[in-house]
Amino acid sequence: MSRILVTGGTGYIGSHTVVELMASGYDVTIVDNLSNSNIEVLNGIEAITGKRPDFENVDCLDFMNFNAVFDRFKDIVGVIHFAASKAVGESVLKPLMYYNNNIGSLVNLLTIMQQHGVNNLVFSSSCTVYGQPDEEHLPVDETAPRKTATSPYGNTKQINEDIICDQAHAVPELKATILRYFNPIGAHPTALIGELPNGVPNNLLPFVTQTAAGIREKLRVFGDDYNTPDGSCIRDYIYVVDLAKAHVQAINRMLTVQDRDRVEVFNLGTGRGLSVLEIIRHFESATGVKLNYEIVGRREGDIEQVWAKADKANNVLGWKADTPIDDVLRSAWKWQQRLEH
Ligand code: UFG
User: Are strands 183-185 and 234-235 parallel, antiparallel or unpaired?
Assistant: First the structure.
């Protein structure tokens, strides 16, 4: 049996990935300091998979205790590194916290992996590294140039990608897979795990479901004067369960394919862009719930439009994000309703 260590495994994408790893037969050890997640997620994972993952309440910045996890679990064959701070606005206000946390964690992890001879790393990156792609790069593929980051958060993702490439250059045994996520949404179909936003949500989908539930009075649509067909921003919304499954494919490939580039980069998206207004329409028709919303001014720093060319992940990982958007939105709504009970 092979064991995967998952940092940030009680978080939103992490918990869905742990479920898919366990369903594929992997043993999992989660390392998480619960700074932005809840220990009860473990109950949800256990209820879905019938098995409780090993859990270590450890901060990746705490080198000694992080190192000790690798001493305890001798059968770790790979690591998926989710643990990171991820709020764009907060990163502008607290840049040092973001640099310290997101970069320090990765440096510790790579150091410990090298010391323990663990040579397979999957890293959570983001389409934020592309910024606003030029028109000829839409949909955006992995060869598109990275743009100067517009937030400390985005910069930490770029720096982390660079650190991984440098370390792979220096340590020939190391293999890394960098996954650039587009916009993950939705929840596990059982509604036993999902997204737990902290305070007022920044992201669109939690705001939509909280508005539908009456927790927020209305959704504000940030701008309808963009150069897009309906004037609102376009993103590539990917179902979190589809996204989670890509991680299993990435791990399988690292463990079985020898003749691959040592650092591989994949976009994880659907290949389809949807506008904010289209999301609202789909949500209303999929759930039958009317959404109270108003158009307001643009949000500072928003990208106008970005969606993925996901052919590389489709072809090389043998993976596709193909859950219909209405099913995805229904899963988000079901999770919101469960949260209230
Ligand atoms: N939006 C609204 N109203 C809201 C919230 C969002 O209209 O209340 C709009 C935004 O303007 C944007 C779209 O919904 O057009 C999606 O916004 P999100 O905040 O959900 O997602 P972003 O694409 O802006 O940001 C996400 C992640 C970031 C990451 C970025 C790029 O939240 O962490 O993708 O990868 F940096």
Answer: unpaired
Pocket of ligand 1 (CB under 6 A): 86, 88, 126-128, 154, 183, 202-204, 207, 219-222, 233, 235, 276, 299, 302
Which residue's C-alpha comes closest to atom 2 of ligand 1? Answer: 221
- Ligand 1: distance of its center to the CA of 235 in Å? 8
Residue 267 binned pLDDT confidence (cut-offs 50, 70, 90): very high
- Structure confidence at residue 198 as a pLDDT band (50, 70, 90): confident
What ligand 1 atom has the least distance to the C-alpha of 182?
35
Query: Which of 174, 73, 64, 200 has its CA nearest to residue 120?
Result: 174
The 10s digit of each residue's pLDDT in 304-337 is 999 999 999 999 999 999 999 999 999 999 999 9
pLDDT in tens, 235-260: 999 999 999 999 999 999 999 999 99
Measured by CA distance, the residue closest to atom 15 of ligand 1 is 233
Q: Are 123 and 176 in contact (CB under 8 A)?
A: yes
Which residue minimizes the CA distance to atom 35 of ligand 1? 128
By the 8 A CB rule, do 304 and 226 touch? yes
Structure tokens at 212: 């539908």
CA distance 305 to 236: 9
Q: Could you give the residue numbers annotated as active site? A: 153
* pTM for the predicted model, two decimal places: 0.98
Distance CA 160, CA 105 (A): 10
Q: Which residues contact 219 (CB under 8 A, 6 or more apart)?
A: 207, 208, 211, 280, 291, 292, 293, 294
Q: Which of 309, 323, 134 is nearest to 241 (CA)?
A: 323
Check pLDDT > 80 for residue 341. Answer: no
Q: What is the average pLDDT across 30-46?
A: 97
Atom 6, ligand 1: which residue's CA is nearest?
A: 204
> What's the CA-to-centroid distance between 204 and ligand 1, angstroms?
6
CB 282 within 8 A of CB 274: yes
Give phi and psi for 36, each to the nearest 5.
Answer: -140, 35
Given a contact cutoff of 8 angstroms between Cβ atoms, the answer to whether 238 and 181 are in contact is yes
